[in-house]
Design brief:
single chain; alpha/beta; 11 strands
Length: 256
């Protein structure tokens, strides 16, 4: 099973949700060979719940994923913490929605939830907790206490960072940091635009349909991470396309 653990279905936080754009993302994810992805939209994106309202109205939800034309979409969100850093939470639909409601008082930058409080919140749910892009200069995780970081389930080998920081350098830093913490590493494209799909992919030994199965496979490292030989082209093309799309939306007086 090929899965991407860090994806977005909107072009930006401020943009409106587009069912057509969502469909394009699904089509292209399948075209590059993905069987599944975790939908980790930003928790403070505009109208966060609209995405799940749409998925609920259009596609069956079975076990712990939405079945979208043969693609498994596992619910999730990306949460900013007070001390700086992004944490990916992947869980059951009802758990993601409930955690989102708990986080509503923390949507603004000056009110982000402390890291330890977020970890405490997740203890009430079955959830996969991934430290997002731990070496990104503006949102690193290296400043957090090791005992807190060890409460995560994995670190994110991030497609954007592999491009911007260098594949060998970023890969070495993430795996070294993960080893120090005793954590696995999983790959995520961090795509907002479908050309970025496939830049980094996790291939699991067995198909997974529940959060428990995914978490167990990660803990036991029953998967391999593949970095695309054309990662730089994928990420750069997606970044340029995203920029042009945002400029086009702005000229049409559409919030982006």
């Amino acid at each position: 099973m090929n899965i991407d653990f860090h994806t977005h279905i909107k072009i930006s936080k401020k943009s409106s949700f587009s069912p057509k754009y969502c469909q394009e993302m699904v089509t292209e994810a399948k075209a590059v060979g993905l069987d599944a992805f975790a939908l980790t939209e930003h928790f403070n994106t505009s109208n966060f719940l609209e995405v799940y309202d749409y998925l609920d109205s259009q596609f069956p939800y079975q076990e712990d994923y939405y079945s979208v034309e043969g693609l498994k979409i596992f619910p999730g969100m990306e949460v900013d913490v007070k001390e700086i850093g992004h944490i990916l939470l992947i869980s059951k639909r009802e758990s993601i929605i409930e955690m989102f409601h708990h986080l509503k008082p923390h949507l603004e930058e000056n009110k982000f939830i402390p890291f330890s409080d977020l970890m405490n919140l997740t203890e009430s749910f079955e959830v996969i907790k991934i430290g997002g892009h731990p070496f990104r200069p503006d949102t690193p995780l290296t400043q957090h206490e090791p005992d807190q970081l060890k409460r995560l389930d994995a670190l994110d080998l991030n497609g954007k960072d592999l491009h911007s920081l260098g594949i060998e350098v970023n890969q070495e830093n993430v795996f070294r940091f993960a080893e120090e913490l005793g954590l696995p590493v999983v790959g995520g494209s961090d795509t907002h635009q479908y050309l970025q799909y496939g830049s980094v992919v996790n291939t699991f030994d067995v198909p997974c349909s529940t959060i428990s199965e995914l978490k167990n496979a990660i803990e036991n490292k029953q998967y391999a991470i593949a970095i695309s030989p054309d990662l730089h082209l994928r990420v750069k093309s997606a970044s340029l396309t995203k920029k042009l799309m945002k400029e086009l939306l702005a000229t049409q007086n559409i919030v982006c």
